Amino acid sequence: MGLLHRPRSTAEALDFLAAGPATLIAGGTDVFPALVDRPPPERLIDLTSIPGLRGIAVGRDAIRIGAATTWTDIARADLPPSCRMLQMAAREIGAIQIQNRATIGGNLCNASPAADGAPPLIALDAQVELASSRGLRVAPVENFLIGNRKTLRAADEIMTAVVIPRAFDDALSVFLKLGARKYLVISIVMAAALVDLDSERRVRVARIAVGAASASARRLRNLESRLVGMPADGDFRARIEDADFAALSPIDDVRATAAYRIDAARELVARALRLAGGAKDA
After folding, report:
1. I want to staple 201 with a disulfide (CB 3.0 to 4.6 A). Which of 89, 117, 159, 232 is the partner?
2. How many CA atoms, within 13 angstroms, populate the side-chain half-sphere of residue 87?
3. So where are the chain's domains?
């Protein structure tokens, strides 16, 4: 086993990080399974003893989720309807035991193309906070995830929180995931959709993101724009065009072909929009 540090504050964690290369862990549910039969990293920094990194604070303008907050914490939290898709995703991440340990920060920093937390957070315009000895900086989740297992996080930085603006609290939102089975499965494709309606039940704002069909989750901005003004009981499927998925770059692998992923993404987006528009079934 490598050297294990358990800092009690972010400042202490940054000091350990400045001492040389180290692997950050919170739940460890991505780091340790990925080792397979390889030896562990020479230095590990366990962030779970830093009080400020875990917890959810619902402020007037934003919701701040500590980076070491578990998916169980998120699933059980009292959050506005707009965050329902994030809570739905929380319940899809591994088994209950994994949800009890795995963290929102770990899910993002691991940067798997199939990270279930990414599409809802991107659709919610969430940002990440990154701390270093140079200070604190923020970045949209959409920009933070730059590729397969690649992020904007510098080697001397620690993710401290995810911040969600409270722009559309009462909007309905939905997360849908397609896998080879119902539970304990890596996504073939997934979709998150938020629909905010005006007083006449027409779309005022739409937010849509698709995951597991690119190196990182992608927003469908052209489709979002075309949906504005559409009645909630309209035919969302008819508004979806092939060009809406041009930004996606799915691959062929053991779970699905690239062509199937595009077809599945189109269907999931249509279902998610219908449900987020208030329909009882997809």
Report:
1. 232
2. 15
3. 3-47+54-165, 172-276
